[in-house]
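Subgroup meeting minutes
Present: P.N., E.W., G.H.
Scribe: E.W.

1. P.N. recapped why we're keeping a running log of single-chain structure predictions: easier to compare across weeks, and new members can see raw inputs and outputs side by side.
2. G.H. added today's entry (77 aa).
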Amino acid sequence: MNNNITPIPDTVILYTVSEVAKILKTNRGYVYQLINAGILPCVQIGNKKIRHDALADFLKKAEGYNYTDPYNIVKAS
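Output recorded in log:
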């Protein structure tokens, strides 16, 4: 048995695209745009899932910017 394996913390949470859409108060299509634009990382296990940490990082980086068009991000006015 390999003893060098780091256990996954209990705090790792995966969200579905629908759950992320509810958290962001938007629709699933917009979440897919964020994923396809490379802005919101995801894993695909069956359907696409977003790690809690990835969503938190996205929200921190997004502060102060307008993400209405994920392919044309500008400073929020």
